[in-house]
Amino acid sequence: MTSHSLKPFSNPPSPFSIIVETLLERDHLKFDFTLTGDITTLNLPSPAENPKRTEGLYHHTCFEIFLKRGIHYFEWNFSFTGNWCVFEFEDYRVPAQTKNNLGSHLFSLSHLSHGATAASMKVSIPINEISLIGKEKLQLGISAVLEHPKGILSYWALNHPHTQPDFHHPKSFIELL
User: Fold this and answer.
1) Interior CA angle at 117 toward 116 and 120, to 5°?
2) What is the pLDDT of residues 112-134, one digit of tens each?
3) In a 3-state reduction of DSSP, which class is residue 44?
4) What is the pTM (predicted TM-score) of this model?
5) C-alpha to C-alpha distance for 32 and 122, rounded to whole angstroms
6) Direct distance between the N- and C-terminal alpha carbons of the chain, in angstroms, rounded to an integer
7) Burial classification of residue 155, based on how many CB atoms lie within 10 Å of its CB (0-12 exposed, 13-18 middle, 19 or more buried)
8) What is the DSSP string of 66-116?
């Protein structure tokens, strides 16, 4: 298991820590997100009765995963509601033209919990289900958006290589395999 600490782009209104444990087990890449701090100061929604694919999760508190090979990559967004979204890109911020089935078979989401001082989420991605073509090394991006009072957002990632928060930036990824 590898531990990653996400860094804020700028100082958030309240101190937080986001640690993400990753593990490649057989054909699944597993993520264990742990957010610590005064969780009561965040807009952390309650679980939805019927979680579904929802665009725009990144406008609120969510965790994000990016997997990339060459210039082609996938992005997953996960909310504490259980809602999710998967995107496919054929280049930097260029949505894929093919209409692949970007459904819930591309991940499993479990153990959504939050209390006053900690919140956690577990995600598993079957890497054999995604088509990342090429011989380049597989790269990983992990990020988070936290929604503070008055709609203030803080942006967290492994690194911030640009003058603005940009989780898609080619230099925001690290080598996985």
Assistant:
1) 100
2) 888 999 999 999 999 988 888 77
3) coil
4) 0.96
5) 5
6) 14
7) buried
8) EEEETTEEEEEEE-TTS-EEEEEEEETTEE-SS----SGGG-EEEEEEE-S
